[in-house]
Design goal:
6 strands, alpha/beta, 8 helices, six-stranded parallel β-sheet, about 250 residues, globular
Length: about 250
């Protein structure tokens, strides 16, 4: 992983990888080809993130709502995930990449869950980029599971309701221990979060790109990072320029 060339590098970038199906439709190809091309974009993005000095990269790989898609497409998506882990895990491990999976694991098939756990266990001690894979993930579900966990502690007498704080809720989320995303990117021209990191996005910067995910290149990624670097992040306070004038 090389040293970043950017003055302001986001510690954590999250990406909604959207537009695989529309990319394929434009070319008269089956949707599955769009998903397969999208996997290539994932590989290039992981390399570019490491080169830029980003510490956390979260990819929205499969939402809890994606199960509603046609059975054949869901099967292909799951197959691509399995193929990605089997093919790329060793290389990611060599690159010192740590893999973390977020999302509801309880209803996953044993073969999928086993691969995800293997990826986490194999790379748990790596210290470079952390690749966070959001799989069977929905933010409202994540928050609900955190609330249920806290409610059980209150019910069992381990916690008082009045002692529940945002920090305590944050610690029960799937992303506990992971900093909130500085930058959230969505491809394909759509401009919404689609139930992705709703709690964690409180002070994130957003960049919505017209390109479909299979066309997302390291050059497009670098351009997005340059746009981020030009933003004045205030976190509810004064801008740096206004603060300077007031001193």
């Amino acid at each position: 992983m090389s040293e970043s060339i950017f003055v302001t590098v986001p510690e954590h970038v999250a990406i909604i990888m959207d537009g695989n199906g529309r990319w394929a439709k434009q070319r008269g190809l089956p949707r599955t080809m769009g998903h397969r091309k999208g996997v290539e974009a994932v590989r290039g993005t992981v390399r570019a993130a490491g080169a830029a000095g980003i510490k956390y990269l979260t990819l929205f790989a499969f939402s809890s709502e994606n199960w509603r898609r046609p059975e054949a497409e869901v099967s292909d998506l799951l197959g691509l995930l399995k193929a990605f882990i089997r093919r790329d895990l060793a290389e990611l491990h060599r690159q010192n990449v740590r893999i973390k999976v977020i999302g509801d694991r309880h209803s996953l098939r044993s073969d999928i869950l086993g691969l995800l756990l293997e990826a986490e266990e194999t790379t748990k001690d790596n210290t470079s980029l952390t690749l966070v894979i959001a799989f069977n993930y929905g933010s409202r579900d994540e928050i609900a599971r955190a609330v249920v966990s806290l409610a059980r502690d209150v019910e069992d007498g381990r916690l008082r309701a009045q002692d529940i704080t945002p920090a305590l809720i944050n610690a029960r989320l799937d992303t506990a221990g992971i900093p909130d995303p500085d930058l959230i990117i969505r491809t394909s021209g759509e401009e919404r979060l689609s139930n992705f990191l709703l709690w964690q996005a409180a002070y994130s910067e957003f960049i919505f790109l017209p390109e479909y995910w299979p066309d997302f290149s390291p050059e497009i990624f670098r351009s997005a990072l340059e746009t981020f670097a030009s933003r004045d992040r205030r976190f509810g306070g004064l801008s740096s320029q206004a603060a300077a004038v007031g001193t």
